[in-house]
Amino acid sequence: LFLATLTYDTLRFEYEDFPETKEPVWILGRKYSVFTEKEEILLDVTSRLWFTYRKNFPAIGGTGPTSDTGWGCMLRCGQMIFAQALVCRHLGRDWRWIKGKRQMDNYFNVLNAFIDKKDSYYSIHQIAQMGVGEGKSIGQWYGPNTVAQVLKKLATFDTWSSLAVHIAMDNTVVMEEIRRLCQSNVLCAGAAACSALESDLLYNGCPEDVGLRERLTLWKPLVLLIPLRLGLTEINEAYIETLKHCFMMPQSLGVIGGKPNSAHYFIGYVGEELIYLDPHTTQPAVEPSDSGCLPDESFHCQHPPCRMSIAELDPSIAVGFFCNTEADFNDWCQQIKKLSLVRGALPMFELVERQPSHFSNPDVLNLTPDSSDADRLERFFDSEDEDFEILSL
């Protein structure tokens, strides 16, 4: 911890420190006091993986850009929110990074998944190339929804993490869909190894014996991303209280969004200000050493984090949550239901048990090249426009 304090003291003049306030500081579901826990706050922030613009990495697609300066900020924010999910999955929310301290292998496994090279699961190379299928050319700016869709596709290749990634569209979280996604009935390592006797116990894919069912049902850790639009051109004040509550939940992965064409990764708030990690710094690309260890200091923000007024937030965001177990998900659902009872807090999304019948099939919601994130998030604007055109004939 001493090392961490030393770092902040040397940089304290360049960055604005936390305000001396009685208001609690919330960082990804943890509550802190500025007066008694400042070092703990800073250590928590430093421990988050911080991804910024990089230069001199291998060309994307072999002939494309070797730097993402100017266009990759939302891709980097997507990496940060996803890295936080992997940290929770493999290291736990209580894990801390301390400069100079030897880290466990799983930490380097997580970090390696994001390194700027084509074969890392969530590298800028993978995100940019997968984005082509979502109608985004390499070097084009992404919105929060596009990056969420791309990360969901990339996560299917990450068998080590074995995540269930759900993107809740139309401002609606359908519990049944999530349970179906996360609960996999697995009899044993390989289907061929199962005996006929065990197969006989299955009825319509579900074991009749409840005890066996409990033993067989695995809950895949859930990454839930909810793209939202909280206003037309600026954030509607009625959502601010609800947004704050999202940072209080232990399942919080934070929020990606920012100001128009300038993305940030929001990890908490204090008073009326959001706390965020900023990707807008260009650092040289990092090469793994021969031993397989990475020089990792540049992946941790070692100065007090940036802050901005909540009112300045662009209304187009994606909120993230991580539920490691089914109990975590049930607890999250209870908290969301309670939140609807908080006075002055307008719900940002709806939580329903089943898919309403008027909903379109989620599989049909894939981005087409000519639809922007805003179009996709607020499809009812399109229908209003169409009505308007009909009326004006």
Automatic annotation (TrEMBL):
Would you tell me the protein name for this molecule? Cysteine protease
Keyword RNA-binding recorded: no
Alphabetical keyword list: Autophagy, Cytoplasm, Cytoplasmic vesicle, Endoplasmic reticulum, Hydrolase, Mitochondrion, Protease, Protein transport, Thiol protease, Transport, Ubl conjugation pathway
Instruction: Give the UniProt family note.
Output: Belongs to the peptidase C54 family.
Gene Ontology cellular component list: autophagosome; cytoplasmic vesicle; cytosol; endoplasmic reticulum; mitochondrion
EC numbers listed for it are: 3.4.22.-
Q: Where in the cell is it found?
A: Cytoplasm, Cytosol; Cytoplasmic vesicle, Autophagosome; Endoplasmic reticulum; Mitochondrion
Give the UniProt record's GO annotations in the biological process aspect: aggrephagy; autophagosome assembly; mitophagy; piecemeal microautophagy of the nucleus; protein processing; protein transport
Major location (coarse): cytoplasm
Q: Catalytic activity annotated for this protein?
A: [protein]-C-terminal L-amino acid-glycyl-phosphatidylethanolamide + H2O = [protein]-C-terminal L-amino acid-glycine + a 1,2-diacyl-sn-glycero-3-phosphoethanolamine; [protein]-C-terminal L-amino acid-glycyl-phosphatidylserine + H2O = [protein]-C-terminal L-amino acid-glycine + a 1,2-diacyl-sn-glycero-3-phospho-L-serine
This molecule's function is given as: Cysteine protease that plays a key role in autophagy by mediating both proteolytic activation and delipidation of ATG8 family proteins.
Keyword Protease present in the record's keywords: the answer is yes
Q: Which Pfam families match?
A: ATG4_LIR, Peptidase_C54
Give this protein's Gene Ontology molecular function annotations.
cysteine-type endopeptidase activity; protein-phosphatidylethanolamide deconjugating activity
> Which residue range or ranges hold the Peptidase C54 catalytic domain?
39-335
Q: Which gene encodes it?
A: Atg4b
